[in-house]
Amino acid sequence: MRTCRIAVLCLLIAFALTPLHAEEPDPPTKVHLKHTEPNSMATMKHKGPYAEVPRVINRIAKAIGAGGYNQAGPIMVAYYNDPRQTPEAELLWEVRIPVAYPGPIGSAENDEMGFKYFDPMFVAYTYHIGSYTEVDAAYMEIMEWAGRNKYQIIGPPVEVYWSDPANVTEDRLVTEIRFPVLEKKIPGGIAE
Description:
globular, 3 helices, 11 strands, Multidrug-efflux Transporter 1 Regulator Bmrr, Chain A, 192 residues
């Protein structure tokens, strides 16, 4: 009887010391797919270093206010060049701010505000929480995910700024990274 109690006690101790989940599997991918909403936006294209993004955002925000337009969503920036391959002074990007009632739709010269209509897009997206200088991992995550899941990236990335850096600490900034994508097809119209 004593041997049986010792054996049970040993089993209970072994069970208590054994983790319930020996090894957690990797969490599911954080990349998602969605259709964006159609939007009318005030836009301003700029050529130059990304350090100038806050200044250009301030310029377009002032122009929106001065024109009597109402911001209707988060600030976005589309990035047209790869900063690893393009000199900093040649980087082309565009600030986009949704507005409720835009002015005349049409393009504008660099560093001038214009208004554009954007049709819905099918995008792969993820969220980055933290400093803007650390979003590279989120970009890589989407690009690798697209390759593994048979999606082709068909346009420039867009960052959507869900947090106001004036009201949130840098480690709590929320940035959505979007890439327009298309599911790869094989002859005959069937997805790969």
